[in-house]
Amino acid sequence: MSTANAAAAPAADFQTGRPKALETHPFYRRLINALFSVLSLCIFVPFLLVVVSSFSSEDSILKHGYQFLPERWSLAAYRLVFQSPAILMKAYGVTVYVTVVGTAAGLLLTAMTGWVLSRRDYKYNRQATFYVFFTMLFGGGLVPFYILMTQYLHLKDNLLAIIIPGLLSPFHIMIMKGFLAKMPFEMIESAKVDGSSEMRIFFTMVLPLSTPALATLGLTIAFNYWNEWFNAMLFIDKPNLVTLQLLLVRMLNTIEYLTANTEFVKQLNIDVSHLPKYSVRMAMAIMAAGPMLCIFPFFQRYFVAGLTLGSLKG
Amino acid sequence: MKRKSLWLAAVMVFVLVLSACGSNGSDGNNGGSAGKGGNAAAQPEANDTANSSANTPEDTAPALEPVKLKWYYVQFGIPQDQQAVSDAFNAMTQKLINTTVELVPIDGGDYENKLNTLVAANDDFDLVWTSSWLFKYVDNVNKGAFMEITDEMLDKYAPTIKSSFSDVAWNDVKVKDKLYAIPNFQTFTKTPGFVIQKRFVEKYNFDVSKVKTYADLEPLLEQIKKNEPGVVPFAINKDQTMLNEAYGLQWLGGVHYRLSDPFTVIDPLQTEEYKTHVNLMRSWHDKGYINEDAATVTDLKPLLASGNVAVTQDFTLAPGSEAGRKADFGGNDVVYVPIAEPTFTGVTPTMNAINYNSKHADRALMLLELLNTNSDLFNLLTFGIEGKHYNKVGDNTIKIIDKGGYANNSGWIFGNVTKGYLLEGQPADTWERVKKLNDEATVPAISGFNFNGEDTKAEGANMDALSKEYGPGLETGTIDPAKYLPMVIEKMKKVGSDTVLKAKQKQLDEWAAANGKK
């Protein structure tokens, strides 16, 4: 989530760099710089606190609460995260697997669908577009979805249950369609005249030409898969197929439930001693957000360009 | 073009309707046949086994056909070594009642969401853990999620369970006179009171036996404030509301009342007692007796663990748990100071229900009965495998192996905790004390009553929001009661607190009349 917010700051810098009139006026420039510095700080400081807390010793957190300069630094939280709960490392593996497979497959399918819908020479273009668009407005609801997945497709305890629902999003298809529709059709026609097959056109011409769109959508799809927990919660019972974010959500919910129901926790003597320690919670949050934070800057170039994708042509 | 898209839309609507019908139809069929089939199958089979041999399940075991059950239950942290325990468990159940059980532990954080979906989707499972606070029992009974457990079924398949609970307890589980779940035997009393660090009690010669209400703590708090810099005299968090018993009030089944007059519902906010309490808290806050962040902090654990808290309050002082609290208070011994007699609070905080769609209700009951009679089976599910997950250190006492992979100690989910082992450090007579306490606890006059807030949902939600907004501030002394208490009462009245109060009174009157209480 912090990564998504972080996107706002660089994007804004990018924009402030553009309008020449504002740039020349030092007052506006300073004002805008100050404004976005404050905004960036608001995003960065809490994040820093999480990072610092994850490196604090448990004792200092217990004694003084979360601090920017802890009494004692410690790597104990990370040692714990990497060592004992094998489940966390497994969850990491699952999330990486789901993200890589899902993004690759999802991107291919989105591009293919978008390409077909953008072709003017496709007879049922409008109908098919409407069909895709329609799913943006109406969904079956949770229970039919659950029944379909478990009783007809039998995808319980199967990673496909996490991958399949995220493969195609009508919104992504629409963006892709908007982008591809701008591609000069004459180019395709000439390729056809030269005897190229549809498949070849798609893979050797369309895909390479749409890298900005693919990068943007790829990042969004990857984010979705990386942050996926709801489908995992519904369909995954086996502890070794759990995704990383589901672990985090669980941890959060569990702590919330137990603190809100102290009466029952006491009465039933529920053992809460194994709940993650404070520094470990922070370390897990860092572990979950970290990879995406590292990947994001590489995509940023495309992302800014991609933000306006399809905006020129409705 | 326009006509074309109209035509398309029409087709799509048609398809949608069709698919909706289809799924409805098949749903209905599924549910119907499963339900009917389930009952039909359960009954004759039950008769068969009853006729063919003696009544005890152990004797009939060889004659039973193999059955597979599925049991969803909550765990706070899924054990890593679940598979090993499941395998061992199944080996035992297969031998005993020719039943294999698919144990599906669900993490506490997911439990409610996941189980609600399972129930809505008519999923096929047999047993499910339910309670008054997580995956709520009454709500699901109203949804028709659970199968009724009749007296005959209880007599036939779960006689031990039946006899281990009093009628009061059974009535507590019944919804409209019908039973839908089997409670688990554990501490079902509460003893509200205070927890005080022993070292301060001894140092200041404080007589804890005289403490009956908050004000009685004041002399001790004063001395601690004066002589113990850095120690918080009295610590609470924002969710810890007033201990009603300290003022002769009680909260049960969703209503507040005076212990002296249990059939008159009161609005605690408007009582003199509440006013006294918030004024007292205000004065404590001003004198610096209460932790600064009381109105906002949700988790008191870090503060307590620093060892710098002298007194805190507790809804339930569980018998024999003083020793276990030592770690919570930073390694300092604590004294429990109960301010009321142990009260029966109901057995609904942990139960197991049978799914309405289950085809093997009889077998599910047998399994629960086994967990209440067979200590080995119960201990296996609760503590895991000996030598791998725990070591025996005494006759009936064990020590859980750290990082053994099965350390949740959640007997309260599976059955009768008094059948299980004790943990190292628990006094040998803990289970006797639990039983005795349960037997001797005062049963509130309105035990068994549960307020149904369905008709006053909107008012209730608004009132909840108001309590969440002002309650912590008032009850921790952070905001001035002279100004805010009348304001909150006023606001409460505006959103309909009187309507709710009347509804509560009406339901209580009806309940009392129906149960011949008044």
UniProtKB/TrEMBL annotation, chain B:
<protein>
    <submittedName>
        <fullName>DUF3502 domain-containing protein</fullName>
    </submittedName>
</protein>
<feature type="compositionally biased region" description="Polar residues">
    <location>
        <begin position="46"/>
        <end position="58"/>
    </location>
</feature>
<dbReference type="InterPro" id="IPR022627">
    <property type="entry name" value="DUF3502"/>
</dbReference>
<feature type="region of interest" description="Disordered">
    <location>
        <begin position="31"/>
        <end position="60"/>
    </location>
</feature>
<feature type="signal peptide">
    <location>
        <begin position="1"/>
        <end position="20"/>
    </location>
</feature>
<feature type="domain" description="DUF3502">
    <location>
        <begin position="446"/>
        <end position="513"/>
    </location>
</feature>
<dbReference type="Pfam" id="PF12010">
    <property type="entry name" value="DUF3502"/>
</dbReference>
<dbReference type="InterPro" id="IPR050490">
    <property type="entry name" value="Bact_solute-bd_prot1"/>
</dbReference>
<keyword id="KW-0732">Signal</keyword>
